[in-house]
Amino acid sequence: MAHGHRPKPTALKLIEGNPGKRNLTRQLEREPEVEVGAEMPKGLTAAAQRAWPKIAEQLTEARILTKLDAQALATYCEMFARWRDACDKIETFGPVVKTGQGGLKLSPFWVAFVQSSAEMRRLLIEFGMTPAARARVEAIKGAADDDPFADF
After folding, report:
1. I need a labelling partner for 37 at 20 to 30 A (CA). Which of 73, 77, 102, 117 fits?
2. Is residue 45 part of a domain?
3. How far apart are CA 47 and CA 79, in angstroms?
4. pLDDT tens, 9-40?
5. Ranges of H-type helices in 62-139
């Protein structure tokens, strides 16, 4: 297994302005072309199905979501659904619950909240959906109409 940083897709390097000023022609030739947009996978929970359309539309408009990303986005939607459910339960029952012996412990809903939050954050970064992740990518206005390789 290789160690170190994960390779960055060439399209993302071009959007960022190719800060290393490397010749990306060979890398472009090796990378597969993938159609933008993805269909919602079957088997998502009802809550995840409700989360999918808006986020998929936004990522497709930004030319980020491809067919290869459907499962990653499905995972995000499931984590969002679990996070939302945990938030609702914490609001109802609180973040701390009494044990059978009268002591206190963190609610299992709090644990679910923290775990789903961490996974959501990881996936948000992967899709460039946090302020810090976006700061590394130049904004693209009308990306769907532009050829990202035109300047190349």
Report:
1. 117
2. yes
3. 10
4. 666 666 666 667 777 666 666 666 778 899 99
5. 70-93, 108-126, 131-135
Closest CA to 148 of 138, 79, 123: 138
| 36/70 Cα distance (integer angstroms) | 11
Q: Which of 38, 48, 31 is nearest to 69 (CA)?
A: 38
Whether 30 maps to a domain, the answer reads yes
Number of domains in the chain: 1
- Go through 41-65 and write b for each residue having 16 or more CB atoms within 10 A of its CB, e for each that does not: eeebeeebbebbeebbeebbebbbb
Residue 72 falls inside a structural domain: yes
What range defines the domain where residue 98 resides? 10-135
- The model carries a pTM of 0.70
Q: For residue range 100-121, list pLDDT tens digits in order.
A: 999 999 999 999 999 999 999 9
